[in-house]
Each structure stands twice: as C-alpha cells, then as structure tokens.
Amino acid sequence: MSVFEITGKVCLVTGASRGIGAAVARGLGAYGADVAVHYRSGHTEAEQVAADVERSGGNALLVQGDIAEPDTVDRLVAETVSRFGRMDILINNAGDQISRVNIVDITDELFDRHVAVNIRPTFAACRAAVRQFRKQGTGGNIINVSSIAARTGGGGGSYVYAGAKGFISTFSRSLAKEVASEGIRVNVVSPGVIATDMQDRVTTPEQLHNTAMQIPMRRVGAPDECTGAFLYLCSDKLSGYVTGQVIEVNGGLLMP
C-alpha cells in the first residue's frame, strides 16, 4: 500500500490539461486515485493526461468547460459524481494571470475577467463540493491554488492577479474554520515561479532569468515539483490533522 493511501479516492482537478494541474492529475493517477481531468480548450492534452492516469492504474474522466462561465463548476462536480458515485477531493487549480497591465490602463472588463477566472470559480466549486461532501456524510478535502504573488504582490502589472490569489488564501482559511467540524479539510498550495505556459506568456525570458537569480535554488521550478505538496494534502493518513494551511512551494524565494 502506498504511503499516501489515496487509492480509489475520487478527485476533480480543474485546469488539468497542462502545467501544474496536469502534473497533479498524473501524480494522483500514479497512486491509484480516480481523476476527473478538467480542461477548457486543450482536449488533446487532456486526453493524454487521462491516458497517463489510466496507464498508472487509476480511472479517468474528461470534463470540459470554461470555468469563467456561471454554473460550469457545479456541472463539473455533478459529472464527477455521476461517473464515480461520489467525490472525495476537489483541487481548484484552474486560473490565469491573463496579462500584465499598468494600473491606469486596466479596463473594468479586464478586472472583471480576473475575478471571473480566478475568484468566482474557486468560490463556486468550493460551495458545490461542500454541498456534495455534506450529502455523502463522509467528510471531504479541498485544495485551492494560490500563488507566491499573494504574499509578494507579484511582478509589475500583476496587482489584480496577486489580489485574486490573496483572496484565495484568505477565503480558504475562513472556509476551513467553518467546515472543520464536519471532517472537511481546506488547504492551499502556493507555487512560486514555475515553468508553465502561463509563465511563458506573461513573463519575458529576461525577466524570468532575473527572477531565477533571486531564488536561493537559482532556478525556476517544474510543475512536477509541486505534485508532492498536493499528494501530501490529499492523504488523510499524512495530513489528516492539517487544515487552513498555505503550503509554499517556491525554491526559497519566500521564507515566511
């Protein structure tokens, strides 16, 4: 039996077609979990992740939708439960920095887009998950994804994204207090500078190099290097008394 003891657990991972979400979904599959692999537009990539999950011994379900659209996350939870009969773990990974914009140039529409992608879906998915966990009566596990930007403010033009991720961390602590007595745990993984498609899109190679030189490990992280924190939090055996916590994965860039 694996040290994590998550074999057979049913997990919904949002934003699982690439980056950290894909690495986490594959990690869960490697330890025998059943994984609902959510994607928005990367169908081919999501299919590969699902195939890797099943190759490792887990069962996979593809679920598609734009989390910025109202009611999408409720449907994703419902589809997960319909396929597997229950849901044990929700991992709210999907999100996007969208773009870096000077404060005087940001439009209301771009601000609203940040809220629609980074705040509302996490809130709505947590609400749907708690409803499902209460229906099951067996507790549950929620892991939300924040960012080092929530603590540092991020790079230039990142204030709305950083603020959204700050909301995720604070909201998660508050929710953890509310549902702890029901056996529902709520924690946060806060990645630092990780080599992902999003990072490549919003950060120039020069900026990325300069940032890497500020990291004590002198390099940016890989998505796979975040997986262990999620597996730890998914395991009731290893983290059953852990809730309301933010786990930083950043190569030493931030040392609380």
The CATH superfamily is known as NAD(P)-binding Rossmann-like Domain
Average pLDDT taken over every residue:
94
Number of domains: 1
Across the major sheet, the strand order is 3-2-1-4-5-6-7
The shape, in one word, is globular
| Category by helix and strand content | alpha/beta
Distance linking N and C termini: 34 Å
Write the H/E string, N to C.
Answer: EHEHEHEHEHHEHHHHE
CATH architecture: 3-Layer(aba) Sandwich
CATH class: Alpha Beta
Question: At the third CATH level, what is the topology name?
Answer: Rossmann fold
Number of strands: 7
Strand residues, percent: 5-15%
**For the CA atoms, what is the radius of gyration?**
17 Å
Helix content: 40-55%
Q: Tell me about the biggest sheet?
A: 7 strands, parallel
Number of discrete helical segments: 10
Low-confidence stretches: none
In short:
With 256 residues, the chain is an alpha/beta fold. It has one domain: NAD(P)-binding Rossmann-like Domain (Rossmann fold).
Explain how this protein is built.
The chain has 256 residues and is of the alpha/beta class. The chain has one domain (10-192, 226-249): Rossmann fold (3-Layer(aba) Sandwich), CATH 3.40.50. The chain has helices spanning 19-30, 43-55, 72-84, 108-136, 149-152, 159-179, 197-202, 205-212, 224-234, 236-239, and strands at 10-13, 34-39, 60-64, 89-92, 140-145, 184-191, 246-249. The protein has a seven-stranded parallel beta sheet with strand order 3-2-1-4-5-6-7, sandwiched between helices. Helix 1 (19-30) runs parallel beside helix 2 and helix 1 (19-30) crosses helix 9 (224-234). The radius of gyration is 17 Å and the shape is globular. The mean pLDDT is 94.
